[in-house]
Amino acid sequence: MAVKVGMVSLGCPKNQVDAELMLGCLADAGFKLVEDAAMADVAIVNTCGFIESAKAEAIEEILELAALKNEGRIKTLIVTGCLAERYRDSILEEIPEVDAVVGIGANQKIAEIVRRSLDEKGFGVYGEKEELQLCGRRIQTTLPYYTYLKIAEGCNNKCAFCAIPMIRGRFRSRPMEELVEETKMLANRGVKELTVVAQDTTEYGTDLYGKRMLPELLNRLCEVDGIEWIRVLYCYPEKITDELLDVIANQPKMCKYIDMPIQHVSKKILRAMHRPGDRETLTALIEHIRERIPGVTLRTTLMTAFPGETQEDFEELIDFVRGVKFERLGCFIWSAEEDTPACDLPDRVDEETAAQREESIIDEQSRITDEWCESMIGRQLDVIVEGYDRLAECCYGRSQGEAPEIDGKIFFDTDGKKFTMGDFTRVEITDFMGCDLVGHTV
């Protein structure tokens, strides 16, 4: 009887792609894949280790499965991903129920490691970061009609708060032809919506081609038959060019959506973070993007309570949020990550103040979101159908303005029409609930 393997993958879409590649290796090796890791012989936790809350979530998941192992319900527990790469043997020391820890450079050996773990306990397998598998068979874990395309791995940016370069290594692009071929394969599988990801998508191509090539790549991807929508996440603001904006504005398949993590706007704080820019340049960029791409949806991520952030710095940040009015915005509190330049910085913000600042930004954005949702009433949007909500007795989906698994939904009456997951329809917006829009098919 085939050994059953289940995987829990945490964190970002980039980590999810890694998980799908490992699942492909396991399927090719003859293992039986099960959706619920608690029902498997071998449970794998593909961890995130970006910030403290992500590490806590990963550890909680590992401990839950460790308890099942102690009860005899699973035979083997394996940890992969960022936490495994970063903490290696210390995981084995602190959580003895873990049978194997796998660094990202050994992901492609996952089938061999699973077999070994059935007989041997308490070992680690690590490779060079650059050996991380970037292409191959993927077992898609998203819904059938959308998925992610990871165009590069690693990061050359030296943000003071971030451990990703240390965990994932230098930035390395995948060849354009390889990405086009993968996109064709995904389209043949039924994928209609493609989300392009990397730690820094705007850096794509610099190592392979000597210049940034994201605009050309997107043009090539738009030529693939079957793909209807393409969106881009993780665009660094200082690398957003007119060439990129023109592709997003003029290519019919490109979602009019830009995700750009700016973190802060205080020049003092940005420099302490080892980031360029300031409030004036960021405001000018946002105005320029909106002029270049009418109706664009802008998403950003902010970090508050970075060491040295004064009340004046915070007021500048929240005033910027009020003025710019991002359509989508997330905020998190800085956490001290070991071995990052920011870890030992003085003048830390106390926990109570940090929580208040995060809450203030979230509350402010909630008001902005309500205004934006109200402004959408009466508009008609193209929506990709995701499913049927039996409780609400209506369908739901997303427009170009909602990234999968990140943003809100659009709930709509079908007026008796029948839809299949992945269909497109036109919806007129009539109301909203929180960050979700409500409407009916046209």
Which helices and strands occur, and which strands form pairs?
Elements: E1 4-9, H1 13-28, E2 32-34, E3 42-47, H2 52-70, E4 76-81, H3 82-87, H4 89-94, E5 100-102, H5 110-117, E6 123-125, E7 146-150, E8 152-153, H6 164-168, E9 172-173, H7 176-188, E10 193-197, H8 206-209, H9 214-222, E11 229-232, H10 242-250, E12 254-259, H11 267-272, H12 279-292, E13 297-304, H13 311-324, E14 328-333, H14 351-376, E15 380-389, E16 394-398, E17 410-413, E18 424-433, E19 436-441
Parallel strand pairs: 1-2, 1-3, 3-4, 4-5, 5-6, 7-10, 10-11, 11-12, 12-13, 13-14, 17-19
Antiparallel strand pairs: 8-9, 15-16, 15-18, 16-17, 18-19
Helix pairs in contact: 9-10, 12-13, 13-14
Keyphrases for this structure?
single chain; 442 residues; alpha/beta; Rossmann fold; Transcription Regulator spoIIAA; 4 domains; six-stranded parallel sheet; 14 helices; globular
Can you walk me through this structure?
The longest helix has 26 residues, at 351-376. The chain has 442 residues and is of the alpha/beta class. It is globular, with a radius of gyration of 22 Å. The chain is built from 14 helices and 19 strands. The chain has four domains: 4-131, Rossmann fold, CATH 3.40.50; 142-260, Transcription Regulator spoIIAA, CATH 3.30.750; 277-376, Transcription Regulator spoIIAA (2-Layer Sandwich); 380-441, Nucleic acid-binding proteins (OB fold (Dihydrolipoamide Acetyltransferase, E2P), Beta Barrel), CATH 2.40.50. Helix 9 packs parallel to helix 10, helix 12 packs parallel to helix 13 (311-324) and helix 13 packs parallel to helix 14.
